[in-house]
Design brief:
Blueprint: H1 3-14, E1 18-24, E2 30-35, H2 43-61, E3 67-70, H3 75-90, E4 95-104, E5 110-114, E6 122-126, H4 134-146, E7 150-159, H5 171-179, E8 182-188, H6 189-196, E9 200-201, E10 204-205, H7 209-222
Parallel strand pairs: 3-4, 3-6, 6-7, 7-8
Antiparallel strand pairs: 1-2, 4-5, 9-10
Helix pairs in contact: 2-3
C-alpha cells in the first residue's frame, strides 16, 4: 500500500472522520463504520486533505485535465484545497469549478462558481464519498449543459465497497458502467481494514477481532459483487 494511503487512513482517524461502532446510514443499513467528511474543519486539515486528493488524482488520472469540479456543497472546499495542492505539489495550474444549488440571476450570474466551463475541457469530479451514485446523477447533466466537456473521472476519499441500492455492483462500478468514465478512491474500506486490523495506533486498536467480524458480516450482507 502506498505511503500516502497509510497516512490518509491515520489522518481520517485523527480527524474523527472515520468512526467505528454502530451506525444507521441514510439507506437504513446498520453499519459498523461511518465516515463524515464534514469533520474536516481546520485549515491544516483541509490543506492535508487537498494533498491526499492531489496525489490520488495524479496516480489515477495524471495531470492532463483542465478543471476540477466539486458538487455543492461539500465539493466546494474539496476543489479549492485540491487545486491548490496540485499547484504546490506538481506545479500545474488546474481551474476549479463548483455548482450552486440555485441559479444566480445578478452579478456573477449562472449556476457555476469558479471558472466557466468551455467546450473541450477535460474535467475530473471530486467528492467526499459516493454510496449510491445519486449525486453523479445530478452532477453529470449540470456539467454537460454548460459545455461540451469530457469527464476524465471521479475521485472520492473512501470506497465503501458496498453494493448500490439497485444492483449488486458498487456505486463506483455503477458510475463507470452508466457514464463511461473511471471512478476511484484515495483508499478502499478493504485497505482501511487491512491497515488497522490488530494494529495499535496511538495506543488503541481500532479494528480488533470483534469489529473485524462485524465488518466481515456487513460485507457478506451488503458487499458489492
Amino acid at each position: 500500500m502506498e505511503q500516502y494511503k497509510q497516512e490518509f487512513i491515520e489522518f481520517m482517524v485523527d480527524s474523527d472522520v472515520l468512526k467505528f461502532g454502530d451506525f444507521t446510514l441514510k439507506s437504513g443499513r446498520k453499519s459498523p463504520f461511518f465516515m463524515n467528511a464534514g469533520a474536516y474543519v481546520t485549515g491544516t486539515q483541509l490543506r492535508k486533505l487537498g494533498e491526499y486528493y492531489a496525489k490520488a488524482i495524479h496516480d489515477n488520472y495524471g495531470l492532463d485535465f483542465d478543471v476540477l469540479f466539486g458538487p455543492a456543497y461539500k465539493g466546494i472546499p474539496l476543489t479549492v484545497a485540491t487545486t491548490m495542492a496540485i499547484s504546490e505539489l506538481y506545479g500545474k495550474d488546474i481551474r476549479y469549478c463548483s455548482n450552486r444549488k440555485e441559479v444566480k440571476d445578478h452579478g456573477d450570474t449562472g449556476i457555476l462558481l469558479g471558472c466557466k466551463l468551455r467546450d473541450g475541457d477535460r474535467v475530473v469530479i471530486i467528492e467526499d464519498v459516493t454510496t449510491s451514485g445519486k449525486s453523479i446523477e445530478e452532477t453529470f447533466p449540470i456539467l454537460k449543459a454548460q459545455a461540451d466537456v469530457e469527464i476524465v473521472g471521479l475521485m472520492v476519499s473512501l470506497n465503501r465497497m458496498e453494493r448500490g441500492l439497485s444492483t449488486q455492483k458498487s456505486a463506483l462500478e455503477e458510475i463507470k458502467e452508466k457514464y463511461g468514465f473511471e471512478a476511484n478512491a484515495i483508499v478502499s474500506m478493504a485497505e482501511v481494514t487491512e491497515y488497522l486490523y490488530k494494529k495499535p495506533y496511538h495506543g488503541k486498536v481500532y479494528i480488533d477481532d470483534t469489529l473485524k467480524a462485524a465488518i466481515d458480516s456487513y460485507y457478506e450482507q451488503y458487499g458489492a459483487k
